[in-house]
Specification:
The chain is an alpha/beta fold. It folds into two domains: 4-83 and 357-457, Aspartate Aminotransferase, domain 1 (Alpha-Beta Complex); 89-354, Type I PLP-dependent aspartate aminotransferase-like (Major domain) (Aspartate Aminotransferase, domain 2, 3-Layer(aba) Sandwich). Helix content is 38%, strand content 16%. It has helices at residues 4-8, 18-27, 30-42, 88-100, 111-123, 137-152, 169-174, 178-181, 217-220, 223-234, 257-268, 339-354, 357-378, 407-419, 442-457; strands spanning 56-60, 63-66, 71-74, 130-134, 156-160, 192-195, 238-243, 271-275, 299-302, 314-318, 382-388, 391-399, 404-405, 422-423, 425-427, 431-434. The protein has a seven-stranded mixed β-sheet, with helices on both faces. Strands 11, 12, 13, 15 and 16 form a five-stranded antiparallel β-sheet that branches. A four-stranded mixed β-sheet has the order 1-2-3-14. Strand 7, helix 11 (257-268) and strand 8 form a beta-alpha-beta unit. The protein is globular and about 60 Å long. Mean pLDDT is 95; it is low at 1-8. The structure holds pyridoxal-5'-phosphate.
């Protein structure tokens, strides 16, 4: 039987380990300890959240600053900080909107929400141009499923094991992580089906990758895409397939994967829903991760960074011909047309465009990947490096041939990096996951990778 924290590690580093307790014992001052005690006194404890690691007092640009005045480059940021924390143009726009129109009850149109919708229709892939806004990503995912159910008159869903799509009951059912599907989330929604995802370095279908972690397509023949086709051919009444086009672990899809899956969806009348909540608005070096694969989903969901790292807003956008639910309720969320969150989103997109942040993500990400590959040649503890743009991962192993995950080393590296001024999270226990703001410079990225390299080289 695994200890409980082994399960939590699928999502993040856990708040239960002795390494964390040791780090806190030597790193936190009395004021911070008192704050954490107060936090724990009022907030319910839960996995990978409360009790907290540390307390922060400032967030600016790529930096967070703790209550003891130490600064960390934030290469996690829950993927909300694409434009950097506290962008002055964003703060000004939000303040002005609050003065102009602080709220719009749902029965009223307002110019800011409409302007945001128009902008999203411009940047969204292909024909995606009709949308709804929600406050959070989980809600938006559930709206997407409701749209698919309405349009197809089916109720089943297909999604990937190991994915996370949100914490609501519906989104939990789509998620493929035990932590979010079991316990209080169970029983999950009937009709949710799962299939093993693409993961070329640790292929669930048993195929070996090459020395660079790339798929050998002549051998695997895209078994992962074929399984999606197989399931849809048997379970012929699936409303939608919900998936992240680039997985947060991170894993990028093997070439041709999404085209093959798109064809399978079309063959069986299943709608394709892309969850771009962390990847949308440029994280992977394209405005949307699915653009790398040249595949247009039927429905796309974005969130997180959409509110500029200040306000919560998410969006589900689809094609005009899927606007077939005029007589049903998809969401009816209180803040559906909130002009202040809409202004935050509109200004965030304008900043991403005006400051050419997508291009920066592609450029800095490419330099980082090159550096990580060089690091892999020097450090045998690195089994695989992967990612796209500023969604990057380093898979740490005890043994390169056996690919045995080294969660212990990953944890040691995480706390050592914090000591050196870099914050990031681990995924699946052993994968160092770097998702810095899109404003990060190559110099800052290299400084962060210097920290990572010496922390790995120091061993567990
Ligand atoms: C891929 C993905 N989908 C959905 C969500 C849920 O978003 P929210 O926390 O805004 O509900 C997350 C959040 O981490 C996510 O990473």
């Amino acid at each position: 039987m695994q200890p409980p924290h082994a399960v939590s590690q699928s999502e993040s580093d856990t708040n239960l380990t002795s390494r964390r307790a040791q780090w806190q014992a030597r790193s936190l001052d009395a004021h911070t300890r008192a704050l954490l005690a107060e936090d724990e006194r009022y907030f319910l404890r839960q996995s990978v959240s409360t009790p907290c690691l540390n307390a922060i007092a400032k967030a600016e640009g790529i930096w967070i600053e703790d209550t003891a005045g130490r600064r960390y480059m934030d290469f996690h940021g829950n993927n909300v900080h694409h434009i950097g924390y506290g962008h002055p143009r964003l703060k000004k726009a939000i303040a002005e909107e609050m003065d102009r129109l602080p709220f719009a009850p749902r029965r009223y149109a307002c110019a800011t929400s409409t302007a945001l919708a128009k902008k999203i229709a411009e940047i969204a892939p292909g024909r995606l141009s009709k949308m709804l806004f929600t406050t959070g990503g989980s809600d938006a995912i559930e709206v997407a499923v409701k749209i698919a159910r309405t349009a197809t008159r089916r109720h089943k869903t297909l999604s990937f094991w190991d994915a996370f799509h949100g914490a609501g009951f519906g989104a939990s059912a789509l998620s493929g992580e035990v932590l979010f599907r079991s316990g209080p989330a169970a029983p999950v929604v009937a009709g949710d089906q799962h299939v093993a995802p693409f993961a070329c370095y640790r292929c669930p279908y048993g195929h070996d990758s090459d020395a660079d972690g790339q798929p050998v397509l002549e051998r695997c023949k895209l078994a992962c895409a074929k399984m999606v086709d197989y399931v849809l051919s048997r379970e012929t009444d699936v409303a939608c397939l919900v998936a992240e086009p680039a997985r947060a672990v991170p894993y990028v899809p093997p070439p041709g994967f999404w085209r093959a899956v798109r064809e399978a969806c079309d063959r069986y009348g299943t709608l394709l829903v892309f969850d771009e909540i962390p990847t949308g608005l440029g994280k992977t070096g394209r405005m949307f991760a699915c653009e790398h694969d040249g595949v247009e989903p039927d429905i796309l969901v974005m969130g997180k960074a959409l509110g500029g790292g200040v306000l919560p807003i998410a969006c589900v956008v689809t094609r005009p011909d899927l606007d077939v639910g005029g007589d049903v309720a998809f969401g009816h969320y209180t803040h559906e047309k909130n002009p202040v969150t809409a202004r935050a989103a509109l200004t965030t997109i304008e900043i991403v465009e005006d400051e050419r942040l997508v291009e920066n993500a592609a450029r800095v990400g490419a330099a980082a990947l090159e550096r990580l590959h060089a690091m892999k040649r020097r450090l045998p503890a690195i089994g695989d490096v992967r990612g796209r743009g500023l969604l990057l991962g380093v898979d740490l192993v005890r043994d390169r041939d056996a690919k045995t995950p080294d969660a212990d080393l990953a944890e040691a590296v995480l706390y050592r990096a914090l000591d050196a001024g870099l914050s990031f999270k681990t995924t699946m226990g052993n994968v160092l996951t770097f998702t810095p703001p899109l404003t990060v410079t190559t110099d800052e990225m290299m400084r962060a990778l210097d920290i990572v390299e010496s922390a790995i080289a120091a061993g567990a």
